[in-house]
């Protein structure tokens, strides 16, 4: 009997009908993986690692098939999709998690807001390695490029220690026009800056300032702008091994 194929959960935050996940899942299946697709029913961009009130209530689902792959949507977030799959709600639990292809880049320190990246970090917290993949365009023309990069990254991460997570950004260009691959630091702020403003109706709102020039050298922002695939290993919540805060608080409480 041949060994079971590694099972890969593919999820995203753009929704299970989004073109990115529809391009990614068949490409990964063609590589020989047992593909399980579970993603939000609707766009859940920017939800981070939220799972909502998911314990003790049924989760509404929908599904359809395309290119030989079943796509399941859930009434919930990417982190919830990872959690459901990890506890066996969709049969055999995944060995690896692949999140994407996100429409639009995920760069800089603000990636902790990204549902795409948070899905990968949630997987790590549940004992699985994961890849988050984004493409640098709001209306991408080269999904196959990002899918190819994702497949290669998945093959690499399968041999890495459990809990390894990388976030990858891919330029929206043909594969043979990529400048290369670079390890990248997280830009200290994102390419666009958020500002607080007021809507015409008087309610507070957030606006986005134009793209900033001169990105930090060596950052994901800088390499992506130069046409490189950026690869950034990341970790989730981790304590700082320093007891200074506890010592200071104890002293203050002692008077």
Task: Please characterize this protein's 3D structure.
There is one protein chain. By secondary structure, this protein is an alpha/beta fold. It has a single domain, classed as Survival protein SurE-like phosphatase/nucleotidase (Stationary-phase Survival Protein Sure Homolog, Chain: A, 3-Layer(aba) Sandwich), CATH 3.40.1210.10. Helices cover 25% and strands 26% of the residues. It is built from six helices and eleven strands. The strands form two sheets. The chain has a nine-stranded mixed β-sheet, with helices on both faces. A two-stranded antiparallel ribbon has the order 9-10. Helix 1 packs across helix 4 and helix 2 runs parallel beside helix 3. It is globular.
Most strands sheet: 9 strands, mixed
Under CATH, the topology can be stated as: Stationary-phase Survival Protein Sure Homolog, Chain: A
Radius of gyration: 19 Å
Q: For the record, what CATH class applies?
A: Alpha Beta
Family: Belongs to the SurE nucleotidase family.
EC number: 3.1.3.5
Organism: Kribbella shirazensis
InterPro entries: SurE (IPR030048), SurE-like_Pase/nucleotidase (IPR002828), SurE-like_sf (IPR036523)
